[in-house]
């Protein structure tokens, strides 16, 4: 949280984490951004579990699937941790776009990694990113995919911090 009397950003920095290279870069970027301001980082992974009997449903009970997602997220947070940055990890059952928008209510930023798949907007930022850009109630930062770059995500490709939520720069 920003210092008393500060006019700096308030609220946590929420980061969507799916284990991809770009989501790891987004988490690193968010931690670097949070450090100087004292904001908390909330690393969020969303997962779904089809009902038993549905095609493609895993044989593991929901609790085991949830625990596996939580373990993976916790390991990733530990691996990318920065001294002095508070990080809360949340593994939430639900569609990624819905979970991220819910968690981003009251946040100072929503940070996502771009996968760069699909057509038009999706070619730039991905379907979840595009949806969040249009529906988020806070500024959104998209960290670009940079194939072959070991320090992928050194800076955001698209930031709406100076504009209305959902605007495209």
Automatic annotation (TrEMBL):
Gene3D superfamilies tied to this protein: HUPs
Matches recorded under InterPro entries: Rossmann-like_a/b/a_fold, Universal_stress_UspA, UspA
Domain UspA: 12-144
Domain of life, source organism: Bacteria
Residue ranges crossing the lipid bilayer per the database entry: none
PANTHER family given in the database record: ADENINE NUCLEOTIDE ALPHA HYDROLASES-LIKE SUPERFAMILY PROTEIN
Family: Belongs to the universal stress protein A family.
Protein name: Universal stress protein
Organism: Amycolatopsis cynarae
